[in-house]
Design goal:
Distance between the termini of chain A: 44 Å
CATH topology of the largest domain in chain A: Tetracycline Repressor, domain 2
CATH class of the largest domain in chain A: Mainly Alpha
Strand content of chain A: under 5%
Helix content of chain A: 55-70%
Largest interface: A-B, 46 and 46 residues
Oligomer: homodimer
Number of strands of chain A: 0
Number of helices of chain A: 9
Number of domains of chain A: 2
Chain lengths: 208, 208
DNA sequence: TACTTGACGAGACTCTTAGTCTCGGCAATG
DNA sequence: CATTGCCGAGACTAAGAGTCTCGTCAAGTA
């Protein structure tokens, strides 16, 4: 996500003052902290910079836009809190994966962060690309579970892993963005069961 | 969606000049037209007013926000182009419903309109409520198909219609917002088959 | 016909916020 | 100890949503 003069390191040895790592951490942490607050305090570049004790230019030196900061804060946590699952069965893998995913995304702070990132992704094409890339990694992780199950011969032939993946993340994002129903671990487990059933069997009369 | 002095009509007979219906239509049509253009012309209140040959105040007299105009333009078309389906079977109803829905939402202009509405819904709580209310109507229409099937005894006991509905609309919105895969009628049909399979049977070992 | 009411187009105005630019200062390298 | 480049601070620009006001126009009422 970093831009700025980072690529000059390839051309010649670095001189001058180095990046302040404490400032980087403060910025990312403050973003999550501000978003997590109950008062709907506006999360603007100015409030982030002020709360992090940092100049605005320090933010723009390392990130191309406000959305990019939000995305990195989000990515950091998502990559952390969702461990790969390998229980040996599709049902087990799927339930573990979706439980962890829904647990994280169901937290109020994380949900708000996800919403903001998705908004920025719609507003700025560069952010759209970056977000798409992050989400592609998440989809790939989930698709892996179905593909392993297919290799084991667990799933019916003709099963479309991409559709199954979109059904899972679709429920997640739809609920986060619309807010008509909560993301609970119970619903994650129920969804896991439904998708397992879908992958393992076919509708009556359908080939395969 | 209208506000302004509309509620005064209840208190006393209307006097003075009436609302210009041609202006209303021009505004809603111009919104769709501007959004549909290939050049990513910004769809701002000023450009809408100018293109519709209307003063900004005329917009704000009848809609509370820009998002509300977008939402009404979207609602108008959605309520129109998705007929209720009643083929007698869940598979048939579901496929007809999802085909019509994906066909409409898959059009470039409509997809962009949906994206913008969803963004506004995230940015403004009042818009969030209005959007939620529209989406609730759409969910209710789809849920009706599953409930009718349940009355016919077509679905397995323990089937959760709300989860099925969220899977369907989840795929739609997820694909629209992320843009990694198109909304085709073929995928609508495939999804309809998958959800039918899910509702009709249960995973092995699960009760019901 | 004359009066009243409220919508109309036009456009100036305020406010918020993202992002840029410039400053004097400071830390790492050589 | 000179150069380089990051630092915090804050002024500045630009875009866009929403408000306010003005003179005008149309639909009823007397």
């Amino acid at each position: 996500m970093q831009t700025g003069s980072g690529d000059q390191a390839a051309r010649r040895p670095h001189t001058g003052r180095r990046r302040n790592e404490a400032a980087r951490r403060a910025i990312l942490d403050v973003v999550v902290d501000l978003i997590g607050r109950d008062d709907d305090a506006p999360v603007t570049i100015d409030t982030i910079a002020a709360a992090a004790g940092v100049g605005k230019q320090t933010i723009y030196r390392w990130w191309p836009s406000k959305g990019a900061v939000l995305l990195e804060a989000m990515t950091e946590r998502a990559d952390l809190d969702i461990p790969p699952s390998d229980t040996g069965t599709l049902a087990g893998d799927l339930e573990a994966f979706l439980r962890a995913t829904f647990r994280l995304a169901g937290q109020a702070t994380m949900a708000r962060l996800l919403r903001k990132v998705m908004v920025e992704a719609q507003l700025d094409p560069q952010m759209g690309e970056a977000t798409r890339s992050f989400l592609a990694r998440r989809r790939s992780a989930l698709r892996g579970l179905f593909e392993r199950a297919a290799e084991r011969g667990e799933t019916a032939p003709g099963t479309d892993p991409d559709l199954l993946v979109d059904q899972a993340f679709g429920v997640l994002w739809y609920r986060i963005l619309v807010g008509h129903a909560p993301l609970t671990e119970a619903s994650a487990a129920e969804l896991a069961g439904a998708l397992t059933a879908q992958a393992v069997r076919r509708a009556p009369g359908e080939p395969g």
